[in-house]
Amino acid sequence: MIPLGRIKVLSEKEIQDRPYIVYWMQASQRTYMNHALEYAIGAANELGKKLLVYFGLTDGYPEADRRHYSFMLQGLADVRRSLMKRGIRMVVLKVRPDEGLDKLRYLTSMIVTDRGYLRIQREWRLNAAERADCRLVEIESDVMVPVEIASSKEEFSAATIRRKLEREMSEYSVPLYEGECNLKSLDDKLDLDELDITDESILDSLNLPGIAREVQGVTGGQERALELLEEFVEGKLDTYGEGRNEPGSGNTSGLSPYLHFGQISPLQIYMRIYDIKSPGKAKFLDELVVRRELAINYLYYNTDYDSFSSLPKWASETLERHLQDEREYIYGMKELEAGLTHDTYWNAAQTEMVLTGKMDGYMRMYWGKKILEWSRTPEEAFRIALELNNRYSLDGRDPSSFAGVAWCFGKHDRPWGERSIFGNVRYMNDKGLKRKFDMERYLEKVENDKRVHGIGKEEHTS
After folding, report:
1. What Rg, from alpha-carbon coordinates, does the chain have?
2. What torsion, rounded to 10 degrees, do the Cα atoms 457, 459, 460, 461 define?
3. CATH code for residues 144-176+221-301
4. What are the pLDDT digits (tens) for 178-200?
């Protein structure tokens, strides 16, 4: 049973007398605990139709590069294999996703889709609803509590949204069971120009920037996500609360890229961990639910989420008041991208992100704060931080990434003691890193990353 709050009809048009229910998979790229998929299976069985899963592969996704597409295609191959076991046909077309539905119109009696929160994802769904000649239903499957039900406005902090989420959790943290299609579509022949997503030449055929090369040793997909979840529960959860911020410790779940691509459900993670007695459980679930859904709330209610103008008034005003403060160091985009600053720790964090597609959480906060300190204006710093994060992080272009960068500039935070350049925005320095953490251990980790990838610092952006 899917809670009604997860279901939203985008187009009230009639269900057509055609052979397929089409599940337009875009954000929830998985078959496990996928509310949209299960809703589509239920609709197909109720209407006596077959189910067709469609994915539109566009090379026009803002700021996405080879590493992101490689990770995603590995995940889609996982999805196809899983759907085959359930007798369900999957179609991948090289097309802008909303426009690709037009190619399936003659087959489609009804469209079911999942939900995305970024501007482009919302535009795709609104365009599809306008163009479709049949009913289109959107199912929210990538949050614990649907965004509008969690809150009707933009929240100021984790504290303000936490109470609202807690009130709704019992209704939405319920199991989702897999259904079976009564009519199988796996062997159906369709007159469509389909992509073979296992063909390694697909990446070369896409018009991608080619800056952020694929990350070695990282595998996308729901099966790998489930393995990582088990590794985390068995070996890292107990020490997560005290060790998650320690740079170089590896004491994190590693699931953020998989959550970003919808390759694992937050509900599945929540249900796996909820009944475990562990000192790290409360902190991890707070990150998974409260912090993550605060970020989604930010994107949903703040149309300027990718702009300096999205910051709270107190933050933008205090930064503007200190615009003329003397800056000891100023670096531009090229120097920052190549990790060529005077700060060894910052350079290591940038190198880690370029090589591995991720950055230790505490270092990402430090990294963003220093870009603010070393840029001519806070607006320029905001733009550079977002561009670098979105280009190189596997979980870039995600609500949590947008919110994380904005946090470095005061979003979801409070005013602190006033100081040069930062004003009342929270400040961080390398002395704090050395006082709290074993930074030599972190530098050794990054040096090892460089050896593993066989790349010197001068080659990071090549």
Report:
1. 23
2. 140
3. 1.25.40.80
4. 999 999 999 999 999 999 998 88
